Amino acid sequence: xxxxxxxxxxxxxxxxxxxxxxxxxxxxxxxxxxxxxxxxxxxxxxxxxxxxxxxxxxxxxxxxxxxxxxxxxxxxxxxxxxxxxxxxxxxxxxxxxxxxxxxxxxxxxxxxxxxxxxxxxxxxxxxxxxxxxxxxxxxxxxxxxxxxxxxxxxxxxxxxxxxxxxxxxxxxxxxxxx
Length: 178
Hints:
By secondary structure, this protein is α/β, with parallel strands linked by helices. It has helices at 2-33, 58-69, 80-83, 90-95, 130-134, 146-162, 173-177, and strands at residues 47-52, 73-78, 99-102, 112-116, 120-124, 140-143.
């Protein structure tokens, strides 16, 4: 019975990853189809920026790793306190070669958004945790709007640079003066 649960989890993770990648295009296709015929080819992403407070869902972690293995450029910004908790996927993502940056404990990095191919924004209250996905009342908004994507991408890039480890100070200013 245990192998069956594992197989179901893998299928669910793959399905969720595919849904996250294709849902915007499918919804757009369904909406436009009512007005006029439309032809569209769906491609898998080539770039993924994740800005997440908590990331402990093994299924989503595996989906992100699979995207990375397929050549998708993945960058992750997260909160330093939550990346160290049991079950966090951040260490596994780093081990897989995915670029990860985190804050330096100056309050929570509390964002929850993803940007796919600099064109699609996925945002809302959802932390990428099993608890949030299975038990919480959460919201996820998927937008393909250049202005919103641009604003969130600017925020991602600003945080990405701010959390550059070469800028971290490991010793308080007073100790450096000695």
